[in-house]
Predict the structure of Signal peptidase I.
Amino acid sequence: MTLTTPVPTTTLPTPGAAEPSSRRTRRADARRRDEGQSLLHYLAVSLSASILVLLLAVAVAVVGLPAVIGGSAMTVLTQSMEPGLPPGTLVVIRPTPVDEIRVGDVVTYQISSGESAVVSHRVVSKTYADGELTFVTKGDNNDAVDPAPVKPVQIRGTLWYSLPLLGWVNNVLNGSNRAIVLAVVAGSLFLYAAVSVGGAVRDRRK
């Protein structure tokens, strides 16, 4: 008589059989978790990129473009040019030949020739005094024209563009602060690039 030992049998999943619900639930949870992390990562990267772009735009407007044209960025401090140029407005002036200045242009000129103090007012008329061209100027918010005609030697330039509120940023960027702020912006750009590259490599490995 021959004795035989029963061989354990393993039930193989039938092709096309349904996956257990617990496994499906775990996979769905993992997928939702990954999607949530991806969304947060995307939002964080988008926010940081937007901030960097804004900083770059401010740096270009305050420092870059004026340097390219040989102009200057200045801050409106008084109310004489309201409502168009209220206090805190950044005004960028560019060198302009005197014979190209027209009535209606906003000119920035030295209050006294050779001194650093300047004012930006609108040209309301052009006159000749003793054979020399002079400009009569007036603040848009002032009732009367400026007391003395402006001579060509006093004029620093004409208004190129203006940006509300960025004048206060320009004040911060003046002097030694400018180098510090530019260094911070440059460092932030390099840091952002490094983080972006690191995140891309990590995602690829995953």
